[in-house]
Design brief:
Strand content: under 5%
Helix content: over 70%
Distance between the termini: 29 Å
Number of domains: 1
Length: 295
């Protein structure tokens, strides 16, 4: 029943819109959702597998659109309301974001191809499963609790993204490479790394949002091209239902992200990330229990 498939897309979009920005791993949550609520609008299992992999990445563009809209004034360097100095500051911010994106791009693209050549399976093939997600959720949950405890009461050296140096931006980007492991969380890795490098929670979260733009646009482009190549190679006709499902997931992800980003920015001004660490640990344990039960 196609309406049921639409409702699944809505649920995927809600999960993506919430978890993309909170440090709890959107990819990990989507993998878990797929385990229990896979799409079934086609009888071709291979097509559904390829579509599902592409869908989970492309709906992240909806989340990215929310960032662009919410931070448009800060991100747009050609605004007539900005002084020449403010425009230079915006360009500098973009150069730092691009520099921070280099490590993950190199590891994600070159590392993925090298691993596939050596082992016959890419990163997705080796790591995208419930056990890896559970372990990553728990490990990074513990890490958040430790970092928050060690930094409790300390004043951050960097209170604004404008104060981030190019060296610090690159080091935060190095932390982003850890998010290749599902369950780690891209935002979780970058925010955790930013805090360890002296950024305030607010500055770390904001810079993490900006880093997501090139990372997700690039990942979505690669997945779309890969999906298109697979469709052409196998002579498959993509059903209209597939595009409708993708559009629904994209739209819902965008709308929910608008709320999630505002919530996180307000939350970190008054609270620590410790609750997210506890949530990650609890969810990781639950995933392990469910895996053992289903095994």
């Amino acid at each position: 029943m196609i309406v049921w498939e639409w409702l699944k897309a809505v649920f995927y979009g809600i999960v993506e819109g919430i978890t993309e920005w909170l440090p709890v791993s959107s990819t990990g949550h989507l993998i878990l959702v797929e385990d229990f609520l896979p799409f079934a609008f086609s009888e071709d299992a291979s097509f559904l597998a390829e579509f599902g992999e592409m869908f989970q990445v492309v709906i992240q563009l909806g989340a990215i659109l929310a960032v662009v809209i919410l931070f448009w004034q800060k991100l747009w360097p050609f605004s007539g309301k900005k002084s020449r100095e403010e425009k230079r500051g915006t360009w500098s911010l973009w150069f730092k974001v691009i520099l921070a994106s280099v490590p993950a791009a190199l590891v994600g693209i070159l590392g993925d191809k090298l691993l596939e050549k050596l082992s016959g399976k890419d990163i997705d093939g080796w790591l995208y499963n419930s056990i890896v997600v559970a372990i990553a959720l728990i490990v990074y949950g513990v890490a958040f609790l430790i970092v928050e405890r060690r930094h409790k009461g300390e004043m951050a050296r960097i209170e604004s993204v404008d104060q981030i140096s190019y060296r610090t931006a690159f080091l935060i980007g190095a932390f982003q490479t850890l998010s290749i492991i599902p369950g780690t969380s891209r935002s979780g890795s970058t925010i955790l790394g930013a805090m360890m490098l002296g950024l305030s929670r607010t500055a770390g979260a904001e810079f993490s949002f900006f880093m997501a733009i090139p990372a997700m646009v690039g990942a979505s482009g690669i997945k779309l091209l890969g999906f298109g190549a697979w469709v052409a190679e196998n002579g498959v006709t993509v059903p209209t239902d597939a595009w409708v499902v993708l559009a629904i997931g994209f739209l819902v992800s965008f709308l929910v992200s608008l709320l999630a980003i505002r919530f996180l920015m307000d939350f970190v001004k008054k609270h620590s990330f410790a609750p997210f660490g506890i949530y990650r640990i609890a969810l990781g344990i639950l995933v392990l229990v469910l895996w053992l039960v289903r095994k």
